[in-house]
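In this section we turn from sequence analysis to structure. A common task in structural bioinformatics is to predict how a protein folds when a small molecule is present, because the ligand can shape the pocket around it. The inputs are simple: the amino acid sequence and a SMILES string for the ligand, here pyridoxal-5'-phosphate. Study the lines below before reading on.
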Amino acid sequence: MTSLAAERAGVLNRLLDAEQERFRTLHPRSAAAWQEGRQHYLYGGPSHWMRRWAGGFPVYAEEAQGAHIRDIDGRDYIDFCLGDTGGMCGHAPEAVTEAALAQLKRGATMMLPTEDSLWVGAELSRRFGPKYWTLTTSATDANRAAIRISRMITGRRKVLVFSGCYHGGVEEAHVEIRDGRVGLRNMIHPNGIDHDAVSRVVEFNDVAAVEAALAQGDVACVLTEPLMTNFGMIPVDPGFTSLARPDPARRHRPYHRRDPHTVLRTGRLHSEPRARA
Ligand SMILES: Cc1ncc(COP(=O)(O)O)c(C=O)c1O
């Protein structure tokens, strides 16, 4: 690092320290909850990414209604994230809460289909088009299932993802471009996967790189989002959108898989802060 770069990094780190101190002062109960959580949670909070909150620890939620969330320090926020997919209609909408409660009272872990599932399947087809559906319990599960089906159909092994992407616990997507090659993403511990064999990674919006990656004929599917989130918020260039559409006329096209998490939460402004230098 040059001395100018080191000086700038020093200034940024001092500003960040000051902001994090301010955040701690404004959220004393959340700060205490975070310390307590570290005694029993591997990553401090229930999910691993909560440790990477920009303030140094997450705010702990008390309750949410409509577009508002209140934290345990009594602060009220307008929730532009909409609590991920569950909150697209606002938090705790009465009709949904009542329907869920009614079902919980009739049992919710029966491991059997219900007649309601028939209506849901037909309704999904009516609203979104595809004839056949399968249900999973998370975006990670849905992505894994889609990757498996794509491999089964195409007989190919690789999943094309975009550098910096986040698709939950999908190992194939835990990669980024490192020195022009597939590298494990920042701060992720290797998990016995040969990423060179199962992943291909290019920059978002780089049409030529996508074409070159697909031309090799070994990509089973492209795992992507309607716009790139979790890495700031990167909009889609016009040329890129059309490329990303599946084109049955071109045989080397892999299956195009839209991460269900983001399809359902395209309006979310979410950024996962990167680790400090
Ligand atoms: C784009 C994207 N895909 C997948 C996931 C993981 O979702 P889930 O926890 O439902 O597996 C997330 C979580 O934030 C996400 O942002």
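The pocket of pyridoxal-5'-phosphate is lined by residues 138-140, 166-168, 225, 229-230, 259, 261-262 (CB under 6 Å). As an exercise, try to locate the residues that line the pyridoxal-5'-phosphate site and compare them with your own expectations.
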